[in-house]
Design brief:
It is a single chain. By secondary structure, the chain is α+β, with helices and mostly antiparallel strands. 12% of the residues lie in helices and 27% in strands. The chain has six helices and 25 strands. A five-stranded mixed beta sheet has the order 5-6-9-10-11, with no helix packed on it. The protein is elongated, with a radius of gyration of 25 Å. The chain starts with a strand and ends with a strand.
Length: 335
């Protein structure tokens, strides 16, 4: 709180320290010209901490160089900026290996619809941006492969595309793939199929259930985040068995028949014995092994999401964790 200056009629207030900011500063990052104080409250990009923010700033109009007040006036090392530099990594565009992605931080959205092109959620925090193709990505969404092979689709692999001016539908979840969103496309001479990145990944996680004639696929945590970001009223996710909502919950889906099933409605056994391990398994909603940030299935040795359902070996005290499909594909008996 503290003391402040204000104009009651304009409802305009300033901290005492902000009201007494220098009108001009010299800064070592831009020694060729002094920087003038600007009260323009539009969102701008700070050239030191690489953050989109708003409020007062110091600017060199001749060089189009701007610093936020904190960076322009601070004499101490910018630990936040150093932290961003430590997590920054060299990354290339999904579509052209000659395009380098620009890294920055976002405290305030540059514009209302500034959403990640992979997960559709607002881009706040560490962000990567392709200035050539004009799309942003969360740092956590960089890991999607540049191509994916689906066992259910024979032939060529799926490759990422950036949806143009027209919306299209995801062939897996039937939800909308909006313009400027990255999706996978399976192209054939007479037709093409489009998939959200998360939905395509789900199609690698099939099980065969005795309750349905076709394979059903696990739509887990990343898909739930996607559906939340889509904010689509046209995508109604209900379990075709119990008729209750699947929104916000991992579920299984047959995209051939357009049906969804809760795990307990498939049903996925809670206790099971599989040939892939000595001991029986227990189904868990999720399991976080440690704080290293890397999580793998001990059967297929591929990465798993720490918030997705897994089979857990209680006797091994969490030292053996597996995808549901990896366990069920080698079932010896239900317990």
């Amino acid at each position: 709180m503290g003391q402040a200056y204000g104009c009651e009629s304009c409802k305009y207030f300033l901290h005492k320290t902000c009201a007494k900011l220098s009108h001009e500063v010299l800064h070592p990052l831009h020694p060729q010209h002094p920087l003038g104080l600007s009260a323009n409250e539009d969102i701008f990009f700070c050239d030191e901490c690489r953050t989109f923010t708003n409020g007062f700033n110091y600017v060199c109009y001749e060089c189009d160089f701007k610093l936020d007040v904190k960076c322009a006036t601070s004499t101490a090392p910018n630990n936040e900026n150093q932290g961003l530099k430590e997590i920054e990594r060299d990354s290339t565009c999904f579509f052209c290996r000659h395009h380098s992605l620009v890294f920055f931080n976002t405290r305030h959205l540059p514009f209302e619809d500034f959403k990640c092109a992979a997960c559709c959620l607002p881009n706040l925090g560490p962000t990567y941006f392709c200035p050539n193709c004009l799309y942003p990505l969360h740092e956590s969404c960089l890991g999607f492969p540049r191509g994916i092979q689906l066992p259910i689709l024979q032939g060529s692999p799926l490759h990422p595309v950036l949806v143009g001016h027209n919306h299209t539908a995801c062939s897996a979840c039937s939800g909308t793939i909006s313009k400027r969103i990255i999706s996978y496309r399976y192209r054939q001479p007479r037709y093409s199929l489009n998939f959200h990145l998360q939905c395509a990944n789900s199609l690698t996680r099939a099980i065969q259930s005795t309750s349905h004639e076709h394979p059903v696929f696990y739509f887990g945590t990343e898909c739930q985040k996607l559906f939340a970001g889509m904010m689509s009223t046209s995508l109604i996710l209900k379990c075709n068995q119990c008729r209750k909502s699947c929104t916000g919950l991992p579920f299984y889906r047959c995209f051939i028949c357009d049906i969804n099933l809760h795990l307990e409605c498939v049903p996925i056994p809670h206790f099971i014995k599989s040939e892939c391990h000595f001991h029986p398994f227990i189904l868990k909603k999720y399991f976080v092994e440690d704080d290293l940030g890397e999580y793998y299935c001990d059967v297929c040795e591929k990465e798993r999401h720490p918030q997705d359902h897994v089979y857990y070996c209680k006797k091994c005290r969490g030292l053996f964790i597996a995808h549901i499909k990896c366990v069920l594909n080698q079932v010896s008996q239900h317990l």
